[in-house]
Amino acid sequence: MTLWLTRIVPSPRSREARRDLGGSDQGIRLHQRMLQMFPDGVEGPARAAFGVLFRAEESPHGPQILLQSHIEPDSSRLPDSYGSVETRSLDSLLSNLHKGMVVNYRCVANPVRKPGTTSREAYGLPPVVALSGNAAVEWWERQSNAGGLEPLYINAHPLAAVGGHKGSKDPAARQRIQHARTQFDGKARVLDVELLREKLATGIGRGKAYGCGLLSIAPAR
């Protein structure tokens, strides 16, 4: 299966791009915008059907959006003058992975744990608890190992939460969803190539429709 990586550099003159990147609803607005570039009328969730993962981040030249997908997106479906778009296949990267290889990585993820019923009742905890600090780093270590990577260096940087509304079309009945985010950067050694390819394709953790979970790697020099 081919993976496609698209880099979008939004134009500061585009009202639509400024709106998509602004505020705590950024995640769900970008989710809707990214899906515009794929065919309509698929069965089931479109994000899963096209393998869509994305994240917004700051580059040395300003904000950019990285989009990964199973099929090549159609950038002509974006609003006029939304920004510059460049798409390339990740086939070469995926085919050159090998055990023992050292890579640089980045992932903006939603590190959480689900307390058991006893703990929830005893401490009044919600069904899902966001993790931070050392707990988030330990979460990333577990996720990395499960994805075929051995972290050699981890830099964990908390980001602002993203969210949106989910459920009924009735505004009064819609459920507010919010995802805490941490950006993980560092170096890792490849332990299992097939596991890593799977995680690259499917993403890591929760909140994928809100811009979480896209794992990016590059060979370390």
Q: Could you walk me through the main structural features you see in this protein, from its secondary elements to its overall organization?
A:
The protein has 221 residues and is an alpha+beta fold. The chain contains 7 helices and 10 strands. The protein has helices spanning 15-21, 26-35, 46-49, 91-95, 117-123, 133-146, 193-202, and strands at 4-10, 53-59, 62-69, 83-89, 102-109, 112-113, 129-130, 149-166, 175-190, 215-219. The strands form 3 sheets. Strands 2-3-1-4 form a 4-stranded antiparallel β-sheet. It is globular and about 50 Å long. The model has no long low-confidence stretch (mean pLDDT 90).
Keywords summarizing the entry:
221 residues; alpha+beta; 4-stranded antiparallel sheet; 7 helices; 10 strands; 26% helix; globular
Main β-sheet description = 4 strands, antiparallel
Chain-averaged pLDDT: 90
| Helix share, percent | 25-40%
How much of the sequence lies in strands comes to 35-45%
Strand order in the largest sheet: 2-3-1-4
| Poorly predicted regions | none
> How many helical stretches?
7
How many beta strands in the DSSP annotation? 10
In summary, what is this structure?
This protein is an alpha+beta fold.
Strand and helix map with partners:
Layout: E1 4-10, H1 15-21, H2 26-35, H3 46-49, E2 53-59, E3 62-69, E4 83-89, H4 91-95, E5 102-109, E6 112-113, H5 117-123, E7 129-130, H6 133-146, E8 149-166, E9 175-190, H7 193-202, E10 215-219
Antiparallel strand pairs: 1-3, 1-4, 2-3, 5-9, 5-10, 6-7, 8-9
